[in-house]
């Protein structure tokens, strides 16, 4: 635990309190235990969890800054990344975790309850359905996703959920620039503006990691997102 905490300070200028370190330790143990029964994540070793999940999730702070008091939705969260690590770091943040797979949502609910994460919940839902719901449409300051889909598809998943003046953030690898170039039409149609890419360095990662940010400038047209499955089948290109 000490080594990755050191990396958080060295690479991200994040200083974790003793209590936050304890929360990450419990989260790590729960992930190891549940992975023995369910396929929550392909990363199963302690070192991989700490770097490829915890530290990688916290790289979002390089682009987003202090999230306390903000409403963040993590779409396709899986085992809670990047949402839960960000919530541990920013306890006054309001967190929604969403995933289409029930066992992953159950795990996230268990983590929330075990860690006592206030103003946090996990729901089983698809992004297309959320984007058409009054409860979720254009309600969030930040909407995040990690390893969910290519960016033209992801824009249709995330931008309808972002409030005007808010931002969507996608964690990407080496294809980030190409994906952003392919997303120009989708961004314009869906109300996005002012795209940017931020490179982040990580220990033990051979490939560079990137944060793609897209600001929400205007309301998403009511005919988006399209019905479930269509954004991935026929992306806006």
Automatic annotation (TrEMBL):
It is found in: Cytoplasm. Its EC number is 2.1.1.-. This is Ribosomal RNA small subunit methyltransferase G. Coiled coil: none annotated. InterPro entries: rRNA_ssu_MeTfrase_G, SAM-dependent_MTases_sf. Specifically methylates the N7 position of a guanine in 16S rRNA. Belongs to the methyltransferase superfamily. RNA methyltransferase RsmG family. Signal peptide: none annotated. The keyword NAD does not apply. S-adenosyl-L-methionine binds at residues 76, 81, 99-101, 127-128, 146. One of its GO terms (cellular component) is cytosol. GO terms for molecular function: rRNA (guanine-N7-)-methyltransferase activity.
